[in-house]
Design brief:
Elements lengths: L1 E5 L4 H11 L3 E6 L10 E5 H9 L3 H7 L5 E5 L5 E6 L1 H6 L4 E5 H11 L5 E4 L3 E6 L4 E5 L5 E3 L1 E4 L6 H6 L7 E14 L8 E7 L2 E7 L4 E9 L11 H12 L6 H8 L6 E8 L5 E2 L2 E3 L2 H4 L8 H18 L4 H30 L4 H12 L4 H12 L11
Parallel strand pairs: 1-2, 1-11, 2-7, 4-13, 11-18
Antiparallel strand pairs: 3-6, 4-5, 8-9, 9-10, 12-15, 12-16, 13-14, 14-15, 17-18
Bound molecules: flavin-adenine dinucleotide (FAD).
The site of flavin-adenine dinucleotide has 34 residues, from helix 1, strand 2, strand 3, strand 12 and helix 9.
Length: 394
């Protein structure tokens, strides 16, 4: 089949990899002029790790990754007041856990396509007309084409979803927070392999020292701190973060000063996507476009890769019956994704507590992680992926 995939992030190129292995003719479309760089750091484990292993990617991912040792919460003077050793994650996942830039994993997946998949950069599917026997798609720039299937892998704010299923507000469930991230070079101090977080109720900033003297900063804050005019440019985002974090203490004034040299500030709502159906006619959604779990799950990347693997596998097994494949893909993955979304939504208030009491409780609980059976009790369930992925003969 001729299959067009809108979005070359994580899920799109993973799907392209498995589809081209089955002999399909794949077209990837990416709105950025090249693969997106920078961004933020993700934890990578679970079923996504298993899929990456089946794709032969683990050696590269581990080389690019960071084996984080400690998550540390600090007070406004930088004194440790909570946190835990990341050993618990390594133990519970049999050391199948690493942390790396989202852009590094995206590039690693894209690179194994090895030029075998046609990619249109700086373009996007602009119109979709399902004609029954094919789908007629037009683009922002390229000439229109007819394809057999269209897949939306274009993230939380998916255009394919909007074009084929309806406006974003029908599916977006904001969790009440916003997130911002950027990297700067030469920031001091550095604490290698330690993820350090300081917060006041409803506002929290973290830093993580990266290779080549870069430091990643992640800000999470409750939506009530957003300015009336939603910030869209880097300059507006910097002004908003300056206002929101000016009085948060710890290293905030130094971080905000360093931010002046940062470009490409990631800034978005912490939201989930809830849908009743991920498919319609010859069109299907995967990854964040279909079922964004939000950063609170710490697993969206791997889940997107698993959805891609299953969709490609079902298309392979169905021998061209895409309706059957779409139905089986959804039947297998949707209940699992719903459970992941529920536990991520519950975790949001522990990730960034809204009260001083909430911060104290979170810090206390994380100190208990040094006792193995308590650590297993608190994080074990969320670290287990209760699903068995089929072995497709691709
Ligand atoms: C701050 C933060 C921290 C996170 N931490 C983790 C973590 O620890 N672990 C984890 O596993 N996940 C984490 N996630 C989630 C993870 O990043 C996503 O779930 C994952 O990237 C989803 O992959 P995707 O391919 O569906 O979408 P994306 O990675 O968003 O890729 C979508 C692609 O589509 C492109 N695109 C968008 N619109 C169009 C268009 N109109 N036309 C063409 N192309 C388009 C984009 O440029 C992009 O390349 C985190 C997310 C955030 C925001």
């Amino acid at each position: 089949m001729r299959i067009a995939i809108n979005g070359a992030g994580i899920a799109g190129p993973t799907l392209a990899f498995w589809l081209q292995k089955s002999g399909h003719e794949v077209l990837l479309i990416e709105k950025s002029p090249q693969l997106r760089s920078g961004g933020y750091v993700i934890d990578f484990w679970g079923i996504g790790y298993d899929i990456a292993e089946r794709m032969g990617l683990i050696p590269q991912l581990r080389e690019l990754g960071y084996q984080v040792k400690e998550v540390r919460f600090v007070d406004s003077h930088g004194r440790k007041n909570g946190g835990f050793s990341v050993d618990v994650f390594h133990r519970l996942t049999n050391d199948r856990f690493t942390s790396l830039r989202r852009s590094d994993i995206a590039a690693t997946i894209y690179n194994i396509l090895d030029g075998k998949v046609e990619t249109l950069f700086n373009d996007s599917i602009a119109e979709i007309e399902d004609r029954g026997n094919c789908v007629h798609i037009s683009f922002d720039h390229a000439a229109p084409r007819d394809v057999d299937l269209v897949i939306g892998a274009d993230g939380l704010h998916s255009r394919v979803r909007r074009l084929a299923f309806g406006p974003e507000k029908e599916f977006e469930v904001p969790l009440g927070y916003h997130v911002a991230a950027f990297e700067i070079e030469g920031y001091q101090p550095r604490d290698d392999l330690v993820y350090i977080t300081h917060g006041l109720p409803g506002r929290q900033v973290s830093r993580f020292s990266m290779r080549d003297d870069y430091t990643l900063f992640l800000f999470v804050f409750r939506d009530e701190y957003l300015p009336d005019d939603y910030p869209t440019s880097d300059q507006q985002r910097k002004s908003a973060l300056n206002r929101i974090f000016a009085d948060v203490g710890w290293e905030c004034s130094r971080i905000l000063k360093g931010m002046e040299n940062a470009s490409d500030i990631y800034f978005d709502s912490v939201s989930q996507i809830h849908m009743i159906s991920w498919t319609k006619g010859r069109i299907a959604l995967i990854g964040d476009a279909a079922a964004c779990v939000s950063l609170m799950a710490g697993e969206g990347t791997g889940l997107g890769m698993a959805e891609a693997y299953v969709l490609a596998g079902e298309l392979h097994d169905s021998g061209g019956d895409y309706s059957l494949a779409f139905a089986k893909y959804q039947e297998l993955m949707m209940p699992f994704l719903k459970r992941k979304q529920e536990s991520a939504a519950k975790f949001a208030s522990s990730f960034t507590p809204g009260s001083a009491r909430g911060i104290t409780i979170r810090n206390f609980v994380t100190r208990l992680f040094s006792i193995p059976y308590l650590a297993d009790f608190f994080v074990g369930r969320d670290l287990r992926d209760e699903i068995i992925l089929p072995n497709y003969e691709v």
